[in-house]
Amino acid sequence: MSLLARLAPHLPYVRRYARALTGDQLTGDNYVRVALEALAAGERQLPSEMTPRVALYHVFHAIWSSTGAQLEDSSGIESGEDDASRRLMRISPRSRQAFLLTALEGFTPSEAAQILAVDPRSVERLIAEAQSDIDAELATDVLIIEDEAIISADIESLVKELGHRVTGTATTHDEAVDAVTRHRPGLVLADIQLADGSSGIDAVKDILKRFDVPVIFITAFPERLLTGERPEPTFLITKPFQPETVKAAISQALFFHPSRQKQAA
User: Fold this and answer.
1) 264, 227, 234, 231: which is closest to 249 by C-alpha?
2) d(CA 3, CA 132)
3) Within 10 A of 223 (CB to CB), how many other CB atoms are there?
4) Alpha-carbon gap, residue 14 to 244, rounded angstroms
């Protein structure tokens, strides 16, 4: 199989990543082009121990880190850039890389470590640093829709650890709708099966009819959402959950939600 055939399926994704990393599509594309030219000329090789996608990102990083990361100047961000791009460019290059590779591109910490040529523990530290910067900037009001008191308390504790404020808790559909009437949240964390037999899905649908807000479903019944019959949620966490998984999802949901970006602008 030719080099182009091996890499073609991954090029749209590495372009997306390059744009997020550099803050500009043209600049990102230039670095992708240089990486491909280096591969075509034999100046760089795809490491055989890596999958083609991981290897492509690895080569891209080797080139970008030698020039782009060192020349980067966040003061040069164009005034027309969206708010997410501005926030990204305020994160240190190395932490930004680890965050984007895992949050945007879906690589595991182990794969991100291969791409960045560091150990997985360093990647986890870099991700934590990026999330800390994001959470401090995007502190918001949170509504928790959960009928199990212990789980609700656990989620509330995680939310507060990240610097957010819990302004409402609900155990039923009606309580959830009433809560957003009294105080509009910046984030909703919702279970599916609620105390009185009502549905967290229906509660969220009614909330979203009023305004756009990022939603994270935390549920023991993910199959009720992953049906293909309705738009499926970007953030879905299965119970029992790991605290770090919930924290990461909160950071990502607030960071990438389009409505949040417009409101911040």
Assistant:
1) 234
2) 39
3) 10
4) 26
Residue 227, judged by CB atoms within 10 A of its CB (0-12, 13-18, 19+), counts as exposed
Quickly list DSSP for 177-232. Answer: HHHHHHS--SEEEE-SB-TTS-BHHHHHHHHHHH----EEEEES-GGGTTTSSSPP
Question: Which tens digits make up the pLDDT trace of 102-144?
Answer: 988 989 999 999 999 999 999 999 998 988 887 777 889 999 9
Q: How far apart are CA 152 and CA 146, in angstroms?
A: 6
Say if residues 179 and 135 touch (Cβ distance below 8 Å): no
> 226-263 pLDDT, tens per residue?
665 554 556 889 999 999 889 888 988 887 776 544 44
* CB of 104 closer than 8 Å to CB of 16: yes
pLDDT digits (tens, 9 = 90+) for 64-96: 888 765 545 444 444 445 566 677 777 888 898
Give me the residue label for tokens 């009433």: 178
Tell me if residue 143 falls in helix, strand or coil.
Answer: strand
Short-list 35, 40, 85, CA closest to 57: 35
The residue among 158, 162, 154 whose CA lies nearest residue 138 is 162
Token pair in block for residue 120: 């997985």
Nearest CA among 105, 5, 91 for reference residue 58:
105
Taking the whole predicted model, whether its pTM rises above 0.70 is answered as: no
Which H or E run includes 115? helix 109-116
